[in-house]
User: Fold this.
Amino acid sequence: MEEMEFDYEEVVKATENFNPRRIIGKGSHGMVYKGVLFNDRLQVAVKKPSEGLESLHDNSKLENEIRVLSSLRESPHVVNLLGTSSYNDHKKLIVMELMPNGSLHDLLHGHANKTTWPKRVEIAMQIARAVQFLHEAVVIHRDIKSSNILFDSHWNAKLADFGLAVKGGLSEPGPAPAGTIGYIDPCYTTPDKLSTKNDIFSFGVVLLEIISGRKAIDVCKTPASIVERVKTSDELKEFCDTRMPLPPNYMVGSVTRLLSFAARCVSLNEEERPWAGEVVMGMEMELNCFFRVPAWRLCVLKGVKQKEEEEAFCEYYKCVKWEEEVIDDHDHQGRFG
Assistant:
């Protein structure tokens, strides 16, 4: 994607000279500020390296993010690069599309959690599509986590922060292992262990967060790791977010399927982990089943009671259940060729 060069003075003006009140987040290499460019016609997010990194002349993560994002086509699944701005002897800022509704971490772990089960399944599929998009573009993100999943003005989930991402094939040893505790693949211990399976593990942790409402690591709980917690849960209801009602009957199949994918994603056996496209196919089947059932939608339009609505949905669901077997028969590789 071709990047635009923004005038630095305009960026300074747009962020009120990087006023702390304009800070909307923190990336892997500095602060993120909200700005307004082109006479208030374009709202943007501006990433500025932290003063500590600037003093050390370490802009490697920022430069890497620019390099990776510039190589990608525009996508509805990732936070897109709008351009850069140069200052002080070739130092750079990143100008990104603004994501005004915060992060998935905020949504799941904030005090005002109002996320429905259908929306959680939809978010999971949007993230899966983002991972698939990156892997098809030969990019490994290396830092997939709920705080790096942001929402646009329509509450669509997009993957952000490419400071640690790796672009290219796996013919040469990659960089030293990096990521976030609780999300990083335990199999990723040396540079030669870099693969798309590392991202799949991190994605699986995010799926577990979406279902349970628990943080990836919570020292106040036993076990502290969400991955270890799922191993001790015998039933779906034991793992689901306790702050909200259990999934209604017509959502049980979708949430169960989601939990099944998550468990495979965080398997210590890398070969058991699905590839991103397989997850997308499975999730799309579930969402198509939920949102595009003629009988179910007709019931909603006519205002029938919830029990009748659920029965109509379940009858249709039985008809498409066989499609799951097709997905399970696929044997895909989860690494770059």
In short: The beta strands are 4-5, 23-27, 30-37, 42-49, 81-87, 91-97, 139-140, 149-151, 157-159, 166-167. The longest strand covers residues 30-37. The chain is about 40% helix and 15% strand.
